[in-house]
Records
---
Amino acid sequence: MTEPNTTELQPLPDDWQRALAVVAHPDDLEYGCSAAVAAWTDAGREVAYVLATSGEAGIDTLDPATCGRLREREQRASAAVVGVTAVEFLGHRDGVIEYGPALRRDIAAAIRRHRPELVITLNHRDTWGGVAWNTPDHVAVGRATLDAASDAGNRWIFPELAEQGLQSWNGVRWVAVAGSSRPTHAVDARPGLERAVYSLLEHRTYIEALTDQDPEAYARAFLTSNAEATGERFGGTPAVAFELFSR
Ligand SMILES: [Zn+2]
C-alpha cells in the first residue's frame, strides 16, 4: 500500500513570458487551472490555448455538428474571462483521439507557432488518483504534449513543418501537468479564483447537461474545494497543483 503523498508543493517557476496550454476538450482547462492562467495574464504573460477537439461528442442531447460549434464558442468566451484571446482547435475527433505521430506533429506545430517556455497539459495518466479511470483522449493528448515539447525542437523529426515555415523551437523549459495525482508544484489560486468560476460558467450548455445544481454554485464549489485541498500541501494557500517536468 502506498502512503498518501504529503510532501509540500513548490511554487511553480515564474521566470517565463509565454505559455501554451494543450488539452483535449473545451472545459479541460476550466475544470482545473484557469485560476492560475488568470494570475499569469494579470502579470502580463501571454497564454494561448490549443484544443485537440471541439468537444463535439460531449453532450448526449446535441448532435456533434451543432455541439462542436457551440462548444468552440463557449471555449473562446471562457478563455477571454481569464485574459486568453488565442484559442485554436486542431480538429481531432472527440472521444477517439489517437496517440501517435500525427497528434505529436500537430502539437509540435502549435508549439513552434507560439514558442512557449512553459507548456501546460492535463493528466496523461491512466487514472485520476487511482480512483477514477481517465479518458483515452486525455491520456493521448497529455502524452503527446509531453513528447511534442521535445519534437518541436528537433528539426529532423517532422521536417514537413519547417517546409511550412515553422522553424524548430527548443525553448520549452517545462511541461506542467494539471490534474496529476503526483503534483510537485503549485500556483496561488486566490487572485484568479473568482474569474476561474466565471470562466467555467461560460461552458453553460455543458454544465446544464451535466448537473441539476445551480451552475454558479456548482462551479464555485468544485473549484474552491479543489483549491483548498491543494492548499493543504501549499502552506494553507488555496492553489492549483501541477506535476512539473523540466527539460
Ligand atoms: Zn476532457
---
Amino acid sequence: MRPCWRATALYACATTILVGVSSSAAVAQNDLLVCSINTGTVLRYNGQTGASKGAFVSGGGLSWPTGITRGPDGRIYVASALTNAVNRYNPNTGVTLGAFASGGGLTFPQSVSFGPDGNLYVGGSGTAVYRYNGVTGAAMGAFTTGGPLNGAFGIAFGPDDHLYISSFGTNQILRYNGATGVFIDVFATDPGLSSPYGLTFGADGHLYVASGSTSSVLRFNGTTGASMGAFVTAGSGGLGTPVGVVFGPDGNLYVSSNTSANVLRYNGTTGAFIDEFVASGSGGLTGPSYFAFVPTCGSGDINGNSTTGMDDLPGFIDVLTDVDTNPVHIAAADVNCDSFTDGRDVESFVKLLIP
Ligand SMILES: [Ca+2]
Ligand SMILES: [Ca+2]
C-alpha cells in the first residue's frame, strides 16, 4: 500500500482503501442558517428542533448579512449588504471563500437566488436585479428592465420560471420574464402589503409574502396574483417586522421576526401559529433577516480539535471502515452532506484538506 501521509497521494490512497465500503442509511437532517444583521454573523440551528449550534459564519468581511442561499455547488452564499457583495462559504466549516459576486451596479444587496439557468440573481436597494455568472461570479450587469421596481428586497423564481420581486419602495410584487428580464406586470398588490421583504411559492402553488410594516404574511393566488388576504395575521405569535419566509422540511411556514429576534413557525396549511422555533436571542441572534434550511454537513473534524486537517485522516478512515462507530464521528465524516457516511465522502474530505 502506498503511504497516505503525502497529500498529493491522498485521494488515490484513500480511494484504494475505501473501495467497497458499504453505505449506511440515515434520515436526512437539516440545519437552519439564519442571518443575524446586528451581530454581522450567520448562526446555525438544528433544523428539526431549533436548538442553537453556534455561529456558522463570524467575521470574514461579512457586514449586515441579509439574503442567503445554498448554491448548486453546495456552498453557502450570503449577501453582505454593507460591503456590496455576495460572499461564499464552505458549507462544512463556514470558512469564507471570499467575495463571490460584486460590482455591476449592485448596491446594498438584500436578496439572492440561483436561477433556472444556474446564474446568481441579486436584488438590492436599486431599481434592477443584477445577474452574475453562477460559476465564476463575474458580473453580467442588470438583468431586469422596465417596471416600477424600487428596492428588490425579496426575489423568487416561480413555478413558471419567471422572476417575482418584492418591490419594497412601491409595495408591489412585480413579475419579470425569467429568461429575458423584461418587465411583465404588477403581479400582486394588497392594501395590507407594506414594505414587502421575502417571498416564496408554496407547495400549493400560491405566493407567500412577508409584509414588514404590517407584521403579517400575505398570500396571493400563484397564477392570477389575486389577493387571498393575510395567511399569518398581524402580530400572530408575536410576529414583528417579518423578513424571511420559508417552507421547512416539515411543510410548515417559518418566518423570521426581526423585532422579536426569533424565528416563528406557522401551520403550512392554515397559517395558525405553532411555536417559537428559534428562541429569541438564541445563540446571539439579533435582528434576524433571511434564512435557509440546508443539509447538515459533517465538518470532517473527526478528532474534535476544531480544525479539519491531515490529523483527521486516520479517524476518517477508521469511520469509513467501521473500526470507529462513534455516532459523533460518523456525523462529522459526512462531509458531502448527503446523510450517508461512506466512500462517497472521500472526494469531499480530500477537498477539505487540499483547498
Ligand atoms: Ca481535527
Ligand atoms: Ca456523505
